[in-house]
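Worked example (supplementary).
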Amino acid sequence: MSNTSTTPKKNGFLAGTANYVDERVGVGGILKEFGRKIFPDHWSFMLGEVALYSFLVLLLSGTFLTFFFDPSMAETIYEGSYAPLKGAHMSVAYSSSLDISFEVRGGLLMRQVHHWSALLFVAAAGLHMLRVFFTGAFRKPRELNWVVGFVLFVLGMAAGFTGYSLPDDLLSGNGLRIIDGMMKGVPFVGTSISAGLFGGEFPGTAIVGRLYSLHIMLVPALILVFLALHLFMLVIHKHTHYSGPGKKDTNVVGYPLMPVYVAKAGGFFFIVFGAIMLIATFFTINPIWNYGGYDPSPVSAGTQPDWYIGWLDGALRLAPTGIEFMIGDYTVSTNILLPLVVSLVFLAIVAVYPFIENWVTGDKREHHVLDRPRNAPTRTAIGAAGVTFYAVLWAGASTDLIATNFKMSLNQVLVSMQIALIVLPFVAFFVTKRICLALQRKDREIAIHGRESGRIVRLPHGEYIEVHEPLEPHDLYKLVDFKDYKPTLARPNAQGKITFSSRIRASLSKFYFEDRIAPATQTEIDEAAHHNHEIEAEVKKAIEASK
Amino acid sequence: MMKKKINGMRRSPKALGIVLFAGLLAVGTGYTAVNAAVSPKVQSVRTAEEIALGKKLFLSNCSSCHGKNAEGTANAPSLIGVGEASVDFQVSTGRMPGAASGPQLEVKPVQFTEEQTSAMAAYIGSLADGPSIPDAAYLQANGNPTVGGELFRINCAMCHNAGGAGGALTEGKYAPNLMKSSAKTIYEAMVTGPQNMPVFNEANITPEEKNDIITYLTYLQNNRSVGGEELGNLGPVVEGLLAWLGLLGLLVTITVWLGAKSN
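After joint prediction of all chains, the assembly is encoded as:
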């Protein structure tokens, strides 16, 4: 009996299990590798995490909803508990959505959780993309991961839209009608595409079932695949970090996954989940019972898509009218084609931006230290212009609400936005670029001359000077550590010819790097420090003399 | 002989007056009789004093724009034939008297007592027939809300929004929010078609169906969203705004807190 207490317990339950699993799938090695993965600490690195966690919430709440939702467009008579629809003819899809809201225990909460987390998923992904863009995290080696992220964003929009259309209420039907119209506006093939999707003339009896298959199977599966790719590449590339002492393109400075980030991220998941639960508890989202079942004749005022489709709706609203023309018997619906083309071009530019910038700089180095936005003035300005363009389109989707709530004329709001769509991106570009350059100048000034101390000293000969205090090396680091590109000239190739593409490249390079503030060099800092010392000495002497 | 004949044929000077009188009498009574038979309903009984008070109020408050005899001016339309319902709708919601010319008259604090409003309605009603104050039987909100909801979505939602939250029209005009409108106001708006609203007469929507619509709207007014705060019923734009500023804003604040270096 006594030897049980003296010999160390070799195979406790946990250790035993761990050993069993390790011997079979080598989990120890995996954990060792992953557990030591280093992640840097910064709030802006958690935005993608918010998107990831809201996707998990989407999967959980969505699974619950599939238990009760019936995507059939067969006609039924509503017998549920919502009085103003009792006895109404409607589709089974709408009736089951109403039952989820009114009869299923916790159903309305889950519907609201699902919808709010969908809005959050795309919003967090968008903000994450902006962070990646403005810090230059898309540079080599991460260009492909940018594209994967971009695909995820578009898939998020697709998932959202297919979901929005499922309840078969008036709002979702109106949204589908717009999509139907956009498809029909595509020359030659549009009508066939629409007929193929809807299984005949709009609305038909097939669309909800088809969108349901896409919404719960294909789109989430694609999102999962791209999410896996995204995270896989994140592990391969390792995470970027902001510049600071000891932080280089060849290392990652931060904390290990185990135990720091496992605990932090695990906790953060519950914070995100909790925040979604709170908003879903206290705020109604998409009150489908207000809209009634879909019927192609009525359209409600204030019919809008969810926010992430808003910019496309805005593009439709802001498109100039009266530019349609006929070729023979065929109408070319430019009022639909123009916004369609503009949005696709915008998306395409977003998708390929890393390659454009890489081509212009010709920089083949790996970049793991992030840029401060001010240190890449032209990129930051391009980003600001893009954000402005998107924002005006986005606001364009709510022209009617802006008009009524701010007591303005709908027509004038529309025209102002059409002008703003063209003008504001340029304004944003120039203003942002100037702000970046000014901040860079300020940084350079502080790096060379030190911080203003606020101490004004009068020298014996009557001169007043303000004493500048030199920076701590730690603070100095991020002011001077950035890459400085210079515009390149068009160079002849091996045949001695200056090609057209090299000319374009040279002019783009000029556009990017013509206005530049060089980082303060060590010589400049030393010289200034020397000068500072002289002044300090003079000040000291003066103080001594006055005693 | 000749003379006598002529004399006999000659009309007496009084004859013209007698014939004229008889003719006018016949036409007048005939018109009144026919009119009474054709007119669908009799206006509510109004006393002469009420009409006189209404005229007095009209002259001092409305006539500068609508003309001394309600015949209209360049600034405002004629009120002859607009009916009592129209006066009651415009005055009891505070839209009239209008404060300033603009794209649309705004709802503002009511300026007249119920008696005064009623007297003015009586005066305008006395000028010519028009939609009268609705029968209380149709204002009980005891109809069929399902039919009412369907009628509302087909006839009203394109301007007033499916949730009755209102919506934009052209050039600064708008369809107002209906969540605070009384049954009487809703009915009167349908029969008089104020400002940009079309008239929904009894052939379009019967009084019973109007009652159904009122029943539906009253249900919405009394039963706010079961899903929590409804954000003005303005739909996905406001939801998106809250998702960005509220939800994502909160989470970004938390990330900043999580990312902050401990001291």
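Two points are worth noting when inspecting this output. The radius of gyration of chain B is 29 Å. Strands of chain B lie at 167-168, 174-175.
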